[in-house]
Amino acid sequence: MAEVQAGWFQCLFCQCLVHESVSRDHICAVQYGQSWIGGPPTTAHMSGTPRINYLVTRGDDPAEGQPGWRWCTACSSLFFPRKAPTPCPARARVVGMMQGVPRPILEFDAHVADGAHYVVRWQDSPQGGQPGWRHCRHCTSLFFVRESGEQGICVGGGSHDATGSGNYAIQVDSPRPSRPLLRR
Ligand SMILES: [Zn+2]
Ligand SMILES: [Zn+2]
Ligand SMILES: [Zn+2]
Fold it and tell me: For tag attachment on the chain, is the N or C end more exposed, with fewer CB atoms within 10 Å?
C-alpha cells in the first residue's frame, strides 16, 4: 500500500497544488501581477471555501503514476526538477528597476527540493482522482486548469504554460475550513 500524504490544497491565485506546512509571506506568484507601489506586496497562497484537501502519493513507484516530483520548501508547490532553471515565486531577487514605473526587475532562483519523493497520478490511471492537473513548462509546478480555461498565475505574473505536459489527476480527500497559510 503506497503511503499518501495529506495537507495539500489548490491555491486560488496560482492554482498550484501546495502543501500547508510552509507558512510565510511572499510565496505565491500572484504578487507579481500586483502593484509594487509602496513596497513589494505580501501574498500567501489561499485556499477555496470550503478547502478541498488533496492526497499525494510518496515514493518512486511507477505503478502509482509519474515518479520524480519533489516538494519545494520555499513556495510549497509540487514541482518537477530539471537541469534548466526552475524559477520559484518565493525566491525573487531584485536586479534593477524598470524605466518610469515603480516596479523592480526580478530574477528568480530555483525551487528548493526537500528529501521527499512524490509520484503524481496519470489522469487515465485506474486509481482515479480529480482530472485537470498539468505541469508548467516555465516554473515546473503542478497546477490546475479550470473549466473556464484559466491556468493560474505563474512566476513573473503571466499564466502557467501547459505546453508538453502530461495529464494528471490528484486524489481528493475531504473539505477543510478555509484559511490562508499561518505564520510559523
Ligand atoms: Zn498561490
Ligand atoms: Zn518553489
Ligand atoms: Zn508556472
Answer: N
Q: Do residues 29 and 140 lie in contact, with contact meaning Cβ atoms separated by under 8 Å?
A: no
Q: Rounded to two decimals, what is the model's pTM?
A: 0.88
Residue 156 pLDDT greater than 60, yes or no: yes
- What is the distance in A from the centroid of ligand 1 to the CA of 152? 8
Residue ranges covered by each domain of the chain: 3-176
Which ligand gives the minimal distance to the CA of 22? 2
Closest CA to 123 of 114, 131, 115, 134: 131
**Residues 28, 113, 115, 174: what is their CA dihedral angle, to the nearest 10 degrees?**
30
28 alpha carbon, closest ligand:
1
User: Dihedral through CA 18, CA 21, CA 27, CA 31, nearest 10?
Assistant: 60
CA 1 to ligand 3 center in whole angstroms: 32
